[in-house]
Amino acid sequence: SLLSLTALTSLNLMSCEQITDEGLRALSRLTALTDLCLSFCEQITDEGVRALSSLVALTSLDLGCCELITDRGMQALGTLTALNHLSLVSCELITDKG
After folding, report:
1. 3-state secondary structure the chain
2. How far apart are CA 93 and CA 88, in angstroms?
3. Which end of the chain has a smaller Cβ tally under 10 Å, C or N?
4. What is the pLDDT of residues 41-66, one digit of tens each?
């Protein structure tokens, strides 16, 4: 199981279309992650993004084409103070308020 890889720092789940918010809640235990790619994981919502807020070591997060994420999800990312790269390509529900 991925959850046993507690030293994992980089994870690319691009186009894993079956990844859901529940999966992100499980991933939130991988606190060593610094690089996470979830682009084209189209089932992810604001709830899943909130689960990522515990990954405070993240420096890079790709949520491109996760079209269900809104401004509410973006607010949850405020805890990720180490983040220096954030991709939100084609996340059309995110506005300037997010």
Report:
1. CHHHCCCCCEEECCCCCCCCHHHHHHHCCCCCCCEEECCCCCCCCHHHHHHHCCCCCCCEEECCCCCCCCHHHHHHHHHCCCCCEEECCCCCCCCCCC
2. 10
3. N
4. 999 999 999 999 999 999 999 999 99
